[in-house]
Every structure is written in C-alpha cells, then in structure tokens.
C-alpha cells in the first residue's frame, strides 16, 4: 500500500493532459485493497486518514490540471476516501463532518455558520465530487452543524441552485446525489415537508414550460428516490405525481420521464446501505404495488399511441429493478403489457421485457399457458430475434445483438418449460413448424452468440416439442 500511495503522490502532482488510465488503475487497486482489509480483518483505516482523506482533498482543491482535474479520477478518489472515512473512529468522522465542504483547507464548517453558497460560489469538480463521497460516509445520527434541520434546508436549496446552473453533468449529478442523501438520511419524518415542497415546486415548473425541463425531471426523480427508499409517508403521492408526467402535453418531458422510472430503484454507489442510507426491504414492493396497477389502468384508458408507449417504457424500467417474486402474482395483468412492450423500438425496453419474460417462462410457465398468450409471445420473439424486420417496415429498427440473443434464449426456454400437462396438449405443438422456419434467418445472424443461441433453440424445439404422430412413426 505504501508503494501504491507513493506512486499516486507523484501522479497527482503531474499536470500532463489525460486520459489517466494508470492513475485510475492505481486508485482501483487501492480501493480493492482497502475493502479487503475491512472485510477480512475488520480493522480501522485511521492510519490512512491524514494522507488519503486530508492530504488528497487539500491537493485536489488546489489543482486544476492533471489527474486531479479529471472528473473520472476524482470520482474514483472520492470512493477511496469514502471507504477510509466509513472505517475511522467517531472523532475522526466528526472532523470530516466539520470540514468536508472546505476540503480541510479553511475554517471548520461546523463553527463558521456560513451558507454553502459561500464555499460553492464557483463550484469546482473537486469540491462537489469529493464532498459528495464524504457526505455519503457520514452516519445518520452524527451531531454536526451541517446536519441540523436549518443547515440541511439551506444546503438543499443551495445545491438545487448550483445543479440548475452548472454546464457540467458530473457536477449536476453530484449535487443531486447530495440532495438525495440529505432527504434520505438527515431529515426526520416531520421535516420531510421540505422534500415534498421541493418536489411540488419542481413539478409545477415542468407544467409551466420550464426552461430546463431535463434538469427538473432528474431532480424530481432523485427526490422521489430518496423518499421511496426510506418508505416516507409521502412515497405514494410522489410516485403518482411522476406517473402523471407520462401524459404531459409536452411529449419530450413525457418520454424522458418514462425513461427515468428505471432510476427509482436502481442501485446507487452513493445512496447505498454501506453509506448508511435508509433503504427499506419493502421499498421495491411499495413501488411495484403503487405504480403497476396505475400504469395498467391508464394504459388501457389512453387513446394516444405515444402515451401508451410511455407507460410501457416506464413499466419496463420498474420491472428491471424489482425482484421477480414480487412480479409473479401480477402476471395476468402484466402479460398483455409485456407483449406490447416487444413492439417498441427502444432496445432498453425490449431487453428489460425479455429478461422479465425469461423469468416468467422458467419460474411460472403455467401462468403463461393459462393466459392464452403463448402464440402471440412466440410470434413476437421470432420477430425480435431476427436481424431484419420481416414486415418490411423501415420505421421499426432492427434489434441489437443482445436483444436478439435474449429473444432467441426465450424461445429455447419455452421448449423446455412449456410442455403442457396430463390434462392439456403441449401448447407449442401447433407452433413448431413456424418456430423452426422462423429460426432459419437467425442461424445466419452476423453475431456468433446469436447464432449459437439459435442452434440451441432449434435443437431444443426438435427434441422437446414432439407430437404423437412422430412417436408413432418411430415405433
């Protein structure tokens, strides 16, 4: 470790232009070593505090070029600092709480009573990124001025303002992460009205022709994520307010909102259990039970094809981040929507849908059989697996290799798990010829992984889907 830190010292003092693969590799190695020390030996990392946390923070604050002027390197350094802070004694963590916004260079933030705007008057990447990782490392119950209700409210206000004005996506992301950390960890339930008011104000601006709607959407989803993960009383209302965006007359806002639903339950390195975030076990169930029936109802009542597509995109994002055991009881409602999701050109939607269908086929094939959608699903899977669109329409984009491979994999799984029962004939018998013909162009796919999957699928259907006539001939 001493040798690695010595090399890092030299690299950090360099002003050479990027990229910085060697610096990134050393930081990645240090991170892995520190994690190993903590996991296997369960010891404090106090011995690294002055050199890594204090020393590198001060150096980053004074450096505008070289590795410490690079946002990606700063992000990796922030993750290393985060590990050290989380594994230091309480007194050291308190020192971090007093100094993380100043990067240990000025008067303690805990005693200065200065608004965050004074430190971020011209926010640099180093200030914002490193302070995000250090804020994440602070436990919920820490006694620090920056975590008092008044300071948190002022801090959120300043961070929202900085994020709305910066041209840097990285600075915006880290400001929004800090907002989410404050809401999730450092506001009591009775003080969550601050978050509700912020969300209401942001949504109102979106309906009033906001000049920066993309930022408003990202802020809305970060605030909602912070509330939902802790199962705040406002969770249901917040989720419903996001669903309302899908029918916005502004089609750009509606589509962008649909794409962001995946972020609500997506894992986050900063807002995580390791960083003492409040992440309740029932949060995925709350999101699913609140949103899916609402999406299903509004999808059926909508008369707009674009709006219907937004609901399907949002649904795919939710299903991609929810455990399968939560999804299975709602299959009768979901299957028609999943089938229509395969008709959407968005590859992320198709991928999420195919992954969900693979779980359905393997864990609950009887539900698929009883739904009566086996034939419709098979036709859509064949169309998705093919590189060229058989309909001849130029509007439908060809599926990406991963999408084609997943679709072909689902065809293979159908032959293995949908075999009918003693009371019913195999539902795949009437589809066998169509599937074998439909797989022929997939066997010529330019991607080897797709071709291999097609070979496996064809063999599985030839072996596993036999009718009685074939068996009689063999006798």
UniProtKB/TrEMBL annotation:
GO biological process: DNA repair; iron-sulfur cluster assembly; protein maturation
Subcellular compartments: Nucleus
Keywords, ordered alphabetically: DNA damage, DNA repair, Nucleus
Keyword Glycoprotein: no
InterPro entries tied to this protein: ARM-like, ARM-type_fold, MMS19, MMS19_C
Gene Ontology cellular component terms for the protein in this record: cytosolic [4Fe-4S] assembly targeting complex; nucleus
Domain (MMS19 C-terminal): residue spans on this chain: 2-414
Domain of life according to the entry: Eukaryota
Keyword DNA damage: yes
Function of the molecule: Key component of the cytosolic iron-sulfur protein assembly (CIA) complex, a multiprotein complex that mediates the incorporation of iron-sulfur cluster into apoproteins specifically involved in DNA metabolism and genomic integrity. In the CIA complex, MMS19 acts as an adapter between early-acting CIA components and a subset of cellular target iron-sulfur proteins.
PANTHER family listed in its UniProt record: DNA REPAIR/TRANSCRIPTION PROTEIN MET18/MMS19 (PTHR12891), MMS19 NUCLEOTIDE EXCISION REPAIR PROTEIN HOMOLOG (PTHR12891:SF0)
Family membership: Belongs to the MET18/MMS19 family.
The name this protein goes by in its record: MMS19 nucleotide excision repair protein
């Amino acid at each position: 470790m001493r040798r690695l830190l010595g090399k890092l010292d030299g690299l950090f003092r360099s002003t050479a232009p990027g990229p910085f693969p060697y610096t990134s590799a050393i930081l990645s190695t240090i991170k892995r070593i520190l994690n190993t020390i903590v996991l296997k030996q369960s010891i404090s990392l106090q011995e690294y505090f002055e050199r890594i946390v204090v020393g590198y923070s001060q150096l980053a604050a004074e450096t505008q070029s070289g590795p410490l002027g690079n946002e990606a390197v700063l992000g990796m350094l922030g993750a290393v600092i985060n590990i050290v802070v989380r594994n230091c004694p309480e007194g050291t963590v308190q020192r971090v709480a007093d100094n993380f916004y100043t990067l240990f260079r000025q008067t303690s933030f805990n005693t200065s009573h200065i608004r965050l705007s004074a430190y971020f008057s011209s926010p640099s990447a180093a200030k914002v990124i490193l302070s995000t990782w250090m804020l994440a490392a602070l436990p919920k119950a820490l006694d620090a001025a920056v975590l008092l209700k008044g300071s948190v409210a002022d801090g959120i206000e300043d961070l929202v303002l900085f994020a709305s004005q910066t041209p840097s996506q990285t600075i915006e992301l880290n400001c929004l992460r800090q907002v989410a950390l404050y809401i999730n960890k450092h506001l009591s339930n009775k003080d969550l009205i601050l978050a509700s008011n912020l969300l209401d104000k942001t949504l109102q601006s979106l309906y009033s022709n906001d000049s920066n709607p993309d930022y408003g959407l990202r802020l809305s989803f970060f605030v909602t994520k912070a509330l939902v993960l802790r199962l705040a009383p406002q969770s249901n209302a917040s989720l419903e307010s996001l669903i309302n965006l899908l029918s916005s007359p502004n089609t750009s806002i509606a589509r962008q909102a649909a794409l962001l639903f995946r972020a609500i339950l997506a894992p986050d390195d900063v807002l995580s259990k390791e960083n003492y975030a409040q992440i309740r076990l029932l949060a995925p169930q709350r999101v699913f039970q609140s949103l899916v029936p609402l999406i299903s109802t509004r999808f059926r009542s909508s008369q707009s094809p674009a709006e219907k597509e937004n609901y399907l995109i949002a649904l795919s994002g939710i299903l991609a981040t929810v455990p399968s055991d939560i999804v299975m009881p709602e299959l009768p409602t979901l299957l028609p929507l999943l089938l229509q999701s395969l008709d959407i050109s968005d590859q992320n939607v198709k991928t999420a849908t195919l992954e969900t269908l693979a779980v359905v086929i393997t864990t609950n094939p009887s539900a698929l059989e009883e739904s009566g959608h086996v034939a419709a699903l098979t036709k859509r899977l064949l169309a998705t697996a093919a590189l060229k669109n058989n309909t001849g329409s130029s509007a439908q984009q060809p599926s990406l290799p991963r999408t084609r491979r997943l679709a072909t994999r689902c065809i293979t799984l159908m032959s293995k798990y949908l075999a009918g029962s003693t009371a019913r004939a195999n539902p795949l018998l009437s589809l066998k010829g169509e599937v074998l013909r439909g797989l022929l162009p997939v066997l010529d796919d330019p991607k080897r992984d797709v071709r291999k999957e097609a070979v496996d699928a064809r063999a599985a259907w030839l072996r596993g889907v036999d009718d009685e006539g074939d068996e009689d001939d063999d006798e």
